[in-house]
Amino acid sequence: MSLTTTGTTTRAPRSPWTGSAGPDELARWKAAAQAAADELAADALERDRANQDPFREVDLLRRHGLVNLLVPREFGGEGAHWASALHVVRILAAADGSIAQLAAYHYINQGTIAFYAAPEQQADWFRRTAEGQWLWGDSVNPVDPTLELTPDGDGYRLNGLKRFSTGSSVGDVIIINAAITGGPDEGKILAFVLDRGREGLELLGDWDHLGQRLSASGSVRYTNVRVDPTDILGEVGEEPFSTLVTPGIQLAFGNFYLGVAQGALAKGREILLGRRNAWILSSAETYAQDPVFQRTVGEFASRIAAVEALADVLNRRYDEAIAKGADFTLEDRAELAVRIAELKVVSTEVGVEVANRIFEVTGSSSTSNQVGLDLFWRNIRTHSLHDPVDYKKIEVGASYLLGEVQPITLYT
């Protein structure tokens, strides 16, 4: 791929975020996230089993001020930075992966106001989302391109089915991407926002997977849905600043997987410390004093610490990239995307391994359904398949060996 723009977008984007999250800001939102996570952890297993749309959990996010975290203060929001939002995702994931996913996608979907909307339209979008405390779901799965957006007067009509629409069944609004079919703008991809109750929009509620059960990720069917000009955010093109959407969601995944690993290790530690005897062949008095188990826990803690250090660096770098606005270049994007791909690789592997092997530390009794230790593994095993991590390894390797840059897509 050559580092040139497509020419599809002529606006000069201005970022509503400047600078980066400082220590006081990070401390504030880490505390808010931890308070929310503590509430979620209290009945995470019971809620997972009930498998109901997480309206109550979304209200909890609102109550702790997390929904409007990224909305600039001048538009009625909290005025925080992306590094704070990414820490929120990480902390929530240690307690409830489903709600962490909802928060991650919400932040990126809400952030498309800055990425896709023209500067003169952003204030109205930000004010409305802040006033309504909207949770943003999405219906953009790019490997399921079954939507048809056809011109209809001054607007469009939308028809088709979109699977894996995270947050759709609880989102106040749903952001949708679709290519125009017919007319002078045929093939142009638009991003637009519909309220969940729009006529012709049908929530199928068919999300029935191993993990992430409360992520509200069912399919949505659109039957002759009216899309008005006021619903349209903008065009999805390759203007560099607008393409920060994908590195952003991939970075959120890295923080999410890290959080799951931290949560699984913390739960394993709690179980291990609660075991007052020791293995019959051990000379230690308790399992926690046994070097065999100490070694495993030490390995997990060390690898998690390394991933955490990388994530913290990249969270700050994403703030710095976002702040550039129109000055953010395709060269900047290529370098940032590779660094985030590196995080995606190691966070996936550490997260899956810790959530799996923690049972080696906690023993057969921890496989009881009443313990719920499997929740961490089920969640990360499900979500880590979102896009193949092997392709992230190839992305990193091709860059390292040949300086190659992957094509810009909603996965790269």
TrEMBL record:
- Biological processes, Gene Ontology terms: L-leucine catabolic process
Low complexity composition-biased segments = 1-10
Outline the extent of the Acyl-CoA dehydrogenase C-terminal domain: 252-387
Domain Acyl-CoA dehydrogenase/oxidase N-terminal: residue ranges = 30-132
Which UniProt key words apply to this protein? Oxidoreductase
Q: Which GO terms describe its molecular function?
A: 3-methylbutanoyl-CoA dehydrogenase activity; flavin adenine dinucleotide binding
Q: Name one Pfam family in it.
A: Acyl-CoA_dh_2
Start and end residues of each stretch annotated as Disordered? 1-23
Q: What InterPro entries does its record include?
A: Acyl-CoA_DH_C, Acyl-CoA_Oxase/DH_mid-dom_sf, AcylCo_DH-like_C, AcylCoA_DH/ox_N, AcylCoA_DH/ox_N_sf, AcylCoA_DH/oxidase_NM_dom_sf
Q: Which domain of life is it from?
A: Bacteria
Q: Does the keyword Oxidoreductase apply?
A: yes
Q: What is this protein called?
A: Acyl-CoA dehydrogenase
Origin organism is Arthrobacter mobilis
